[in-house]
Recover the amino acids of this structure.
């Protein structure tokens, strides 16, 4: 069942969750990103972080994540920089990869702001959002 409303913290979400949120500033976004990833690790999930930003920026944004470098090295944290949001097929492949690796699930997060500014990418992002909603509703 999908919940609605305002969350006090991303930690209020558990497994099979899907959230979209806005940030006051870059520091607020980095704090939420780290919390989202920390909770995913606590739940035994593989992490996927995507954005139009360069990989180095994503890496820097996660500086507060304990063990960040070893998580990347071990494949527990996947950083993806792309001009377009992932397709549903790509997300399903990432989920299957996480499950095959013995993880409980995949915790994905994307900085959609760059994609939302591009009309073509925005359309793809809406399709991905609908797919995600349907997937977490079961």
């Amino acid at each position: 069942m999908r919940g609605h409303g305002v969350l006090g913290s991303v930690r209020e979400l558990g497994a099979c969750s899907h959230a979209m949120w806005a940030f006051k500033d870059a520091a607020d976004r980095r704090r939420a990103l780290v919390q989202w990833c920390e909770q995913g690790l606590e739940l035994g999930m593989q992490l996927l972080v995507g954005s139009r930003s360069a990989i180095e920026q994503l890496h820097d944004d996660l500086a507060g994540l304990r063990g960040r470098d070893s998580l990347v090295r071990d494949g527990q944290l996947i950083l993806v920089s792309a001009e377009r949001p992932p397709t549903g097929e790509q997300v399903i492949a990432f989920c299957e990869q996480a499950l095959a690796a013995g993880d409980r699930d995949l915790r994905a997060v994307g900085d959609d702001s760059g994609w939302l500014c591009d009309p073509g990418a925005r359309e793809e992002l809406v399709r991905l959002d609908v797919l995600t909603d349907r997937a977490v509703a079961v």
Observations:
- Helices lie at 26-42, 55-61, 68-73, 88-100, 113-116, 119-136.
- The chain has a mean pLDDT of 80.
- DSSP finds six helices and three strands in the chain.
- The first strand starts at residue 45 and ends at 51.
